[in-house]
Amino acid sequence: MSTYTFVGASAVGQLDTYEAPIPTPGDGEVLIKVDYSTLGPFDLYNLDRGFYVREYPHRFGCNAAGTIEKVGASVEELKVGDRVISFTAYPPNKGLQAYTVQTPSLVAKIPEWLSFVEGVTLPDNFVTAFYTLFNQLGLPIPTEFPSKSTPPKSTTPILIYGAGTTSGQYMVQLLNLAGYKNVIATASKQHENYLRSMGATHVFDYRSSSLVEDVIKAAGGKVELVVDCASLSNTFATISKVIAPAGTLAFLAPLKLSASLSGEDGELPVEIPEEVRAWFPKGVSVISVKTFFFQKDERLANTLVPVVLRKMIEDKLIQPNRICLVNQGDILTRVKDAFELVRSNKVSGQKVVVKVPV
């Protein structure tokens, strides 16, 4: 039986290499030979805190880019040799391993002109952004992109807090493509021009002492719709000062009660704690966005990745994240190095991409 080596967690904070047999796809599944995967904050929570880890060894990587190696029965839309990207969020079929089994609903074919290393940045952040805006926040899904019709709240100020993050960049792009004309973004100063090029109307430095006043002035009052891509206690504190009394805040779960992404110096609640909820006016609706549940929306379950994402790529409507590539050393060294980049916040606005050797 042919095997491959993967890196997984054997316990909290402990990485090791393992041998596994190359899997065979079942009915309605495909086997992807992976060239690149990604590591992000959620993977770090898995490793350093055991967050949402059900069993060990735990595998990592919410994205994969590679080639279809085998196709199971009943699969018609994909064939051996197709170049694909996949949203690989569900254990044990994660992306940071040489082979991963996925269902076609989580796989998008990509054109020859899109490299694997760029394409692998797309799935999880794109799904998160789309699901947040057009399900959790309740904005209507456009019938096409770019939208040829004007959405009902096209001029309503929408605040994307943490727009410089890899998920925030897709939020801004999607809002622009959907016809929203008053997108207010907060980010590091270095991301200002980049976010404006993607469609942000206003961009404010989140470190500015006048941030609250600047946002309220740009919005012409307090903001009705807010997405928090950072989901930190201090971002909540700022948002509580700019959100309208009957506004809606969608935050990307979990909420970090400390500035550290790692360690035990802060909780990671998935729902907003009562003491934090008290910071907001009583009429504010606070939504915890759990991207991994996006397929509960029947409108998105079987189309968001293989149809919507694929078409946006083919039409060159969506811009991949910038990358920080980790491709030196053996696979264990690469994974350790990639985790350290995420843990230490040494990358800003870039996706940490890992080359996956077979």
From TrEMBL:
GO molecular function: oxidoreductase activity, acting on NAD(P)H
Signal peptide: none
Domain of life: Eukaryota
CDD domains on file: enoyl_reductase_like
Listed SUPFAM superfamilies: GroES-like, NAD(P)-binding Rossmann-fold domains
Domain spans labelled Enoyl reductase (ER): 13-354
UniProt xrefs under InterPro entries: ADH-like_C, ADH-like_N, ER, GroES-like_sf, NAD(P)-bd_dom_sf, Trans-enoyl_RdTase-like
Pfam families in UniProt: ADH_N, ADH_zinc_N
UniProt name for this protein: Enoyl reductase (ER) domain-containing protein
Species of origin: Ephemerocybe angulata
